[in-house]
Specification:
Largest sheet: 4 strands, antiparallel
Number of domains: 1
Strand content: 5-15%
Helix content: 25-40%
Distance between the termini: 24 Å
């Protein structure tokens, strides 16, 4: 049955969640998924890696990496570039440092 996509129901993954997703793929299997969205772990991991590749040469991502590496992690108050939001199987968006864009 078709369900409308709601903007208030999503899963969010930041670049620092990549290792956690990799371990989920290894332990639970790549085709397991979160029950409320239904997107396999391997797909989420692939989309997160793609979003990171898109933003990795931007000024915003460099600033984020500098804070992650050398700064106080709590002092970085912005949304990390490369963050993805999974709304459904067909709609995954990423934050490029300034706006949200659909990830294709």
């Amino acid at each position: 049955m078709w369900e409308p996509i709601s903007s208030d129901r999503y899963l969010q993954f930041t670049p620092r969640d990549k290792s956690r997703l990799e371990s989920l793929v290894e332990t639970k299997g790549k085709y397991n998924h979160y029950s409320n969205i239904g997107v396999p772990f391997i797909t989420i991991l692939g989309k997160l890696e793609k979003a990171i590749r898109v933003v990795e040469n931007t000024e915003e991502y460099t600033e984020y990496l500098l804070f992650e590496t050398f700064g106080d992690k709590k002092s970085y108050k912005k949304m990390p570039p490369g963050t993805i939001r999974v709304y459904g199987k067909t709609l995954i968006c990423f934050f490029n440092g300034r706006t949200w864009r659909q990830l294709k």
